Amino acid sequence: MSRLVMAAALGSVIGFERERLSWAAGLRTHMLVCVGSALIMIVSAYGFEEVLKSDHVVLDPSRIAAQVVSGIGFLGAGSILLRGEIVRGLTTAASLWSVAAIGLAVGGGLYTASIAATAIILIILAGIKPLERRFISVKQRRQLTMLVDRGSLSFHALHEALGPGSVRVKQFVVQQSDDSPELDEVRVELSRASSTEYQAICDRLRHLEVVREFREDDAS
């Protein structure tokens, strides 16, 4: 009983971090995975004691727990979403897999390892993300400025022009040009665009009929 409660508590710590970001696999899902994994481990370790005492019986109880590692994959796959060319949910899928491992550790009586793993996973999920945004994502931001015919380029028109590349648009700002009242100044900020994607987006925008001037800026 105590192992199942501990598994629920450790799973809730990881699940709460996912829940606050409004992911489909949140608090309850992580708790259930952790408790279920712990129960399977307990069954694997102690559920076959009577059978193993019989003569001429060879049984490997650890095989049941081993199936958790591969079986948890269907939950992880369900948390992964494909939006355009962007794959989202991989981190949540990995957290579900990790929580399953925590549950197995708790079920096996490895309390120190399970608590340490929970702390490390929480640091990775909640602590590393701000650093990633500050030092990695910022370097992947690029900004473009265009002068276009007045009222000719809306966000919908930009989306149609870029196609799948529109998912890279982080900011879209339109204002009247200071140099000419007949032109709009459009600023587009791109996020996490590879060099190939960036060049493809620039080529598409540069060749739009409504674009009179195109400039690549340094977003940093």
From TrEMBL:
InterPro entries: MgtC/SapB/SrpB/YhiD_fam, MgtC_SapB_SrpB_YhiD_N
Signal peptide: none
Regions annotated as coiled coil: none
Membrane topology annotation: Multi-pass membrane protein
Bilayer-spanning residue ranges: 31-52, 64-82, 94-127
Principal place of residence: membrane
Residue span, MgtC/SapB/SrpB/YhiD N-terminal domain: 4-133
The keyword Membrane appears for this protein: yes
A UniProt-annotated Pfam family: MgtC
Entry keywords, A to Z: Cell inner membrane, Cell membrane, Membrane, Transmembrane, Transmembrane helix
Localisation: Cell inner membrane; Cell membrane
Gene Ontology CC: one annotated term: plasma membrane
Sequence similarity: Belongs to the MgtC/SapB family.
Protein name: Protein MgtC
Natural source organism: Caballeronia insecticola
Taxonomic lineage of the native organism: Bacteria, Pseudomonadati, Pseudomonadota, Betaproteobacteria, Burkholderiales
